[in-house]
Amino acid sequence: MKFLLNKGQALIEYVLIISLITVIAIGIVTVFGGYLKDAITKSSCSLVDKEYVEGKSPGEARCEEKKNYWEE
Fold this sequence. Notes:
Shape: rod-shaped
Radius of gyration: 24 Å
Helix content: 55-70%
Distance between the termini: 87 Å
Strand content: 5-15%
Oligomer: single chain
Order of helices and strands: HHEE
Strand order of the largest sheet: 1-2
Structural class: mainly alpha
């Protein structure tokens, strides 16, 4: 009879584990999101041959055209 009472226990445990992992992942992205965005921006700037300019706070970096000092 105890088998019938524990039938859905494994499924509930899996749902709780997935929920916990999701909450932790959202927290990590919230805390480190700006740094991740800056890392992606820095990589994409080098791919499109532009200059990486850091922002005042994490997540505000941008790509700008490279300055050509020889043509001035």
